[in-house]
C-alpha cells in the first residue's frame, strides 16, 4: 500500500472510529434515560399502591366501599340524615368554611364569619386540606376555635377518635390492579428496549476494537513508508 493510499485509509478509519464512539455514547445515554424512567415508574407504582383515602361511613364495614369518599356534604349534613352534623373551620382564619355564603344568613352571623371556598366540594381538595391541618372539624354550633390552645387542636383533626366514628383513613385499593398492570407493562417494554440497545452497544464495541486494530496496522505501514522514504533520500 502506497503512502497516499495509506493516508486515505487512515483518515477513513479514524472517521469511522469517531462515528462509532459517537453512536456508543448516544446508546449509553439512551440506556441511562431508560434507567431514570424505571426509577420514576417505580415511584409512581409505589405511590399508587400506598396512597390513602378518607372514606365516610365505613367504620366496621367488612366490605369497604372505596367509592364512598368523604365529601363536604357528609360533614355538614345532620345526623338524622346520616351526616356528621359538624362544620369546618379554617385553621388560619378561624372562619367557618363554606362553598358559598348561606342564604338566608343565619341569625347573629355575617359574611365576615365565613371563609368561602368553592373547592371544598371537591373530595381531593377537601382531603388534602384535612390532612395538612388547614381545615378542622367543630361542632355545628361552634363559631371558632380561637379560645382553645393550639396544642389541643388535634382533637379537631380528621384522625381524632371522635371523628373516626364517621371517617375511615385507609389505603385506596381501587387503583392497585391498574397500577400493577401498567408497571409490569412498562418493565417488560424496558427490558426489551434495553436488551436491544445492549446488543447494539456490544456490536459497536466489537467494531471499535476491529477499527483500532486496523488503524494500528495502517499506522505501521505509514511508519514503514516514511522510514523507507528517508532512507532513499538519506
Question: What key attributes describe this structure?
Answer:
234 residues, mainly alpha, 51% helix, two-stranded antiparallel ribbon
Protein architecture, described:
With 234 residues, this protein is mostly helical. The protein contains four helices and six strands; from the N terminus they run αβαβββαββα. The chain has helices spanning 3-50, 72-76, 123-131, 176-233, and strands at residues 52-56, 86-90, 96-98, 114-116, 135-139, 167-171. The strands form three sheets. A two-stranded antiparallel sheet has the order 1-6. A two-stranded antiparallel ribbon has the order 2-5. Strands 3-4 form a two-stranded parallel ribbon. α1 packs antiparallel against α4 (176-233). The longest helix is centred in the last third of the chain and has 58 residues, at 176-233. It is rod-shaped, with a radius of gyration of 36 Å.
Amino acid at each position: 500500500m502506497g503512502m497516499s493510499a495509506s493516508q486515505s485509509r487512515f483518515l477513513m478509519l479514524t472517521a469511522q472510529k469517531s462515528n462509532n464512539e459517537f453512536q456508543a455514547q448516544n446508546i449509553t445515554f439512551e440506556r441511562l434515560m431508560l434507567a431514570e424512567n424505571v426509577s420514576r415508574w417505580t415511584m409512581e407504582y409505589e405511590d399508587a399502591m400506598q396512597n390513602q383515602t378518607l372514606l365516610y361511613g365505613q367504620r366496621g364495614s367488612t366490605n369497604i366501599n372505596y367509592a364512598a369518599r368523604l365529601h363536604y356534604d357528609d360533614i355538614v349534613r345532620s345526623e338524622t340524615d346520616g351526616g356528621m352534623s359538624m362544620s369546618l373551620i379554617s385553621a388560619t382564619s378561624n372562619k367557618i368554611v363554606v362553598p358559598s355564603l348561606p342564604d338566608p344568613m343565619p341569625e347573629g352571623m355575617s359574611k365576615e364569619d365565613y371563609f368561602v371556598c368553592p373547592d371544598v366540594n371537591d373530595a381531593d381538595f377537601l382531603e388534602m386540606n384535612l390532612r395538612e391541618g388547614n381545615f378542622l372539624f367543630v361542632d355545628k354550633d361552634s363559631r371558632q376555635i380561637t379560645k382553645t390552645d393550639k396544642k389541643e387542636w388535634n382533637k379537631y383533626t380528621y384522625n381524632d377518635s371522635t371523628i373516626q366514628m364517621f371517617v375511615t383513613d385507609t389505603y385506596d385499593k381501587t387503583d392497585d390492579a391498574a397500577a400493577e398492570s401498567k408497571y409490569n407493562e412498562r418493565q417488560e417494554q424496558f427490558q426489551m428496549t434495553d436488551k436491544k440497545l445492549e446488543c447494539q452497544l456490544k456490536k459497536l464495541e466489537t467494531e471499535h476494537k476491529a477499527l483500532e486494530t486496523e488503524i494500528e496496522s495502517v499506522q505501521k505501514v505509514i511508519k514503514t513508508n516514511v522510514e523507507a522514504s528517508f532512507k532513499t533520500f538519506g
